[in-house]
## 1
Amino acid sequence: MSQWETKAAISEAINGYSGAAGRLDIKAFTAFFTTDAEIYGVASLLGKPEPTKGHEQIAALFSPSFDVLEWLQQQNTITDIVISADGKTATASTGLIETAKRKNAGTIILTARYDDELALTDKGWRFTKRKLTPLRFQQLE
């Protein structure tokens, strides 16, 4: 696989993650992580301990949030994809604007950056580590 094809496959994984989030599909969302993946930055934003590790904890963290939403949309600007020499791991940074509408409540807007570590698995590229750096979080009426 060429470097261009590898970067396209990594971009597809990042965008697929956002698509699963937009469908509020926790099973598809969780599948974009390796079974031992770690997430930083999201739990602390929700007032919970860090890090979130593995599929079970990831689903337990995100499911309640998905359950209270009418809809969610993520817009990504993927930058800095760096592929390891062996082509089996990579890092990426993604600028994120997320807008979500809560049931019976206002809209949430998050501007943030994800810094990612990914691995090539038999199911394609998956996150092994995802760190969210919130830049602005706003709740609208």
## 2
Amino acid sequence: MNKSLPAACLLLVAASAAIAQTRDHAPVALPYAGRMTQGRGESWNYARPNLDLSKYRDLIIDETVVYRGADAQFEDIDQSDRNRFASITTKALRDELGKAFPIVTRPGAATARLKMTLLGAEKTRGGVATATRVTPIGFAMNAVKSLAGKDGAFTGSVLYAVELSDARTGQLQMAAIRRVSPDALDVPATLSTTETVKAVAESSAKRIRERLERAMSR
């Protein structure tokens, strides 16, 4: 992200089409947005220079928060549903990461703090999305998409930021922004937007656990 962009330009970008926002820049209200570099598409990353996570042994997992910046991407999803999706995400993180790390509430010398922020969500067209999986032609098309790692038809997605910091000093260690959809052949995830969010939360929590296990030498 270009830190020298004038405020007027930032406002213009924030008001542009939702799909363009994270393709052009990280969400402007994230405190670490200016430190992130873009990967493929709507993928943004930050890692502290000489990052070493091997000293951490346990985790504090904060409650997932709902992004309130002007460039949030929640379409017509109301605030109560956004809050519910945040709770679903917190539970998935604690359940999955608790398999590998002690989950604590107070910082210690070897404690990292993990925080997820929901930046946006696209609705799933329940019924229509399911129908495309259960017909022979639809199943075949979505099987091809699944093998290619592509999104399934009519299924929504979740856009989130995850950050890991030192629990005692607050120093940011790493952060990432991702838009994630369920696997194209995940039929339960097509039933509703809530089921889509659950599937994304669980798969994302698993990926985070696996990466932290490697980085923290578990």
